[in-house]
Design brief:
CATH superfamily of one domain: Classic Zinc Finger
GO molecular function: DNA binding; DNA-binding transcription factor activity, RNA polymerase II-specific; zinc ion binding
Subcellular location: Nucleus
Number of helices: 4
Largest sheet: 2 strands, antiparallel
Oligomer: single chain
Order of helices and strands: HEEHEEHEEH
Radius of gyration: 18 Å
GO cellular component, one term: nucleus
Number of strands: 6
Organism: Bracon brevicornis
Helix content: 40-55%
Keywords: DNA-binding, Metal-binding, Nucleus, Repeat, Transcription, Transcription regulation, Zinc, Zinc-finger
Length: about 100
């Protein structure tokens, strides 16, 4: 089953379709996560501040606010960030690319 699901990454097959907006996904868990956008379901809760999240991975990223963990480091200046997207945005300082 794993190889069949993974194979869809390469074939582009997306057999799982959102009944609300029509967006399609290669794996059913991805559809389930997406459907929470429409339902408002937020089953993952931070134990520290009780904020809730639709995705487990978002909760894990959020926890770094409380722990102070900053695993993403800029190779140019050494600045550290708690999320990969923050590092990506920061990198534009060095490349001269305009932030959006």
């Amino acid at each position: 089953a794993y190889l069949k699901n993974h194979g869809r990454v390469h074939t582009g097959e997306k057999p799982f379709k959102c009944s609300v907006c029509g967006m399609q996904f290669s794996q059913s868990p991805h559809l389930k996560n997406h459907e929470r956008i429409h339902s408002g379901e937020r089953p993952y809760q931070c134990e520290v501040c009780e904020k809730t999240f639709a995705r487990h991975s978002t909760l894990w990223n959020h926890r770094r606010i409380h722990t102070g963990e900053k695993p993403y480091r800029c190779n140019t200046c050494g600045s550290a960030f708690n999320q990969a997207t923050h590092l990506k945005n920061h990198s534009k300082v060095h490349t001269g690319e305009k932030p959006h």
